[in-house]
């Protein structure tokens, strides 16, 4: 690389003053050091994005930096964890300074927004691959697990579903009259960090919607050994997504499209009054396994799932 690895790290990733009180030692030594309060558990997650698999080669690097961090913070949000720190492993074909400046701008702006410290990482040369490990704090024993749903729980989503999926369709050539919102949801999703924290004593189970509502809800159902009945008409849809469904007949989009990064969670009936405003009840957890969909008054069992890695149906 024209720019040395050390110069690159100094120029783009090192800041002078820590932004999170957990940081005892940040970038520059062999390891970073974090101080974890005695009454807290550390939640850790890792997500990798590979060029031409998870993003288009020509994507705006600022969007990419944002999204890479957002998808990791979204996993913390889905557990109810408060993000404190991230590490960043970058494999780059070359040290393209325009690209690096854009990427770090998107990444560090979102990190700053949540007071998440970039505490270290690794920088290597090779096909463009981006990995983040994110760390967050949870009150002991309070994590929102996928395995906690119980029959009778009500199923919620935290906002409109399908916009990011529509954004991907627009990228692939679908002509949409109002593309801005869908493209923004696809390129720069906002992790639902505050909501995850607010759900800590409210939800029985929670997941973030990365692979599609049906596939991700199915993870809750399988790990909780329960089923669910979802009412299609109760799923919140934006007007561009409604217009898309009307124009194409593709009413599966909100169930199978990923990348929305809203939360899907279940709540016992006696706690429903504590669900924060802006969430939508879309169904109910049942004892009988499987995902069922009520649509136009008919109940059908739902088998077609959203995107799963290593299956042949998408990207
Ligand atoms: P080592 O050889 O001990 O692995 P490196 O030379 O890879 O150390 O990294 C030097 C310092 O810079 C370390 O503190 C490391 O965590 C940090 N670092 C390297 N790459 C990145 C990156 N992409 N983002 C943030 N910090 C990084
Ligand atoms: Mg290294």
From TrEMBL:
Which top EC class is named for this enzyme in its record?
transferase
Task: Give me the residues that bind Mg(2+) 5, please.
Answer: 211
* Chain residues that bind Mg(2+) 1: 46-47, 122
Q: Where does Mg(2+) 2 bind?
A: 47, 75
Residues binding ATP, per UniProt: 121-122, 146, 210
Q: In which pathway does it act?
A: Cofactor biosynthesis; thiamine diphosphate biosynthesis; thiamine diphosphate from thiamine phosphate: step 1/1
UniProt catalytic activity: thiamine phosphate + ATP = thiamine diphosphate + ADP
Gene Ontology biological-process entries: thiamine biosynthetic process; thiamine diphosphate biosynthetic process
PurM-like C-terminal domain residues are: 150-289
Q: In the record, what terms sit under GO molecular function?
A: ATP binding; magnesium ion binding; thiamine-phosphate kinase activity
Q: What else is known?
A: Reaction mechanism of ThiL seems to utilize a direct, inline transfer of the gamma-phosphate of ATP to TMP rather than a phosphorylated enzyme intermediate.
Its recorded name reads Thiamine-monophosphate kinase
Q: Which organism is it from?
A: Methylocucumis oryzae
